[in-house]
Structure formats: structure tokens, C-alpha cells
Amino acid sequence: MTQNQKTTKADSLSPLNIRICLGFRILCLGFLLLSAPPLHADKSDTNSIPMISGYIEKFEIPERDAKGNLRNIFKGDKATFRPDGQMDVLNLRAEFYTSNRLTMAISAANCLIDQHNKRGATDAPIQLERPDLTITGTGADWDDSKKVINIHSNVRVILTSGGLLPAPTQKTP
Questions:
Q1: CA 51 to chain centre
Q2: Strands 70-81, 54-64: parallel, antiparallel or unpaired by DSSP?
């Protein structure tokens, strides 16, 4: 490897990349702490179990596949860690990518995320956006492993051009 290649690689560590990596490591540390068994667990005395809590603000967590392609990015204004290993997230935006192109985004004002089981739920308004449609509603739950999202009520679907069916042709009189 030449000196120029080493310099180029080192220069690619921008402050944004460093912040994202640091935020991800803090988030992983929080999950490890929350999933660890208490050191002095007396199950009969709930006061003896330490309540680990904390939060992060203005975060972005990218996930990449084995080839380095972007799969998704989870963003939020604030994630509060709960003792049961779940997170309460304010202003969540989950972006999903195919071949490094944004294909879908889900937004919710607040939600509960179960990172270990890759599930989430909200009672708040939710919006799902794709290039050819927008779905809004109130309340939802989703399971990433099954690739399923259920919107509970007030569901509204808006289809835009560019879908699977061609636009209707108009007859000329």
C-alpha cells in the first residue's frame, strides 16, 4: 500500500463518521448494560435490582449488509433506554434502502422499539412513504424479521404515478 492510499483512507474519517460510530458504540453499550443480569439479583426484593437507564439524543444508526450496501438508517430526536431492554423513541424516522437507494421511509412521533426482537409499536400517527405511494394512519406495530407492518386505524392510502399499472388512456371524440 502506498503512502497516498494510507492518507486517503485516514482522510475518510470525517467528524460525522466518527460521531455516528461513537453513537452506535454508545447505543450498543446501553443494550449490553440493559441485557446483563444484575450483580446482586434477589428476585424477592425488587429494590435490590439496579435500574439502568439513560438516553441518547439526535442519533442515526445505519445498518449495512455483508457487501457494505446500506440496508437502513434509524434516526430519532431522543431514545430513552428502559430496564426491560426496549427503547422509547421520539420522532423516529426509519429509512430503508435497496442498492444504496432510498426505497421506503417510516415516520412516527413516538414509538417503542424492541431492538433484540426487531419489533416496534406506536399509538401515535404514522406515515409510510414510498416513491409511488404514501400511507398514513394512527397506531402501528411492525416486525422486521417478518417484514410486516400493521397500521391500526384511520388508514389513508395515496397512490401516485409511477406504479405498476399504466395511466389510463383518454379517448378522443
A1: 25
A2: antiparallel
Closest CA to 109 of 85, 90, 127: 90
Q: Going residue by residue through the chain (173 aa), what tens digit of pLDDT does each one get?
A: 444 444 444 444 444 444 444 444 444 444 444 444 443 333 444 444 445 579 999 999 999 999 999 999 999 999 999 988 899 999 999 999 998 899 999 999 999 999 888 899 999 999 999 999 999 999 999 898 898 999 999 999 999 876 555 555 655 55
3-state secondary structure of 134: strand
Q: Which domains does the chain have, with CATH numbers?
A: 3-38+52-159 (2.60.450.10)
CA distance 101 to 130: 12
With CA atoms as reference, report the closest residue to 85 among 48, 49, 31, 145: 31
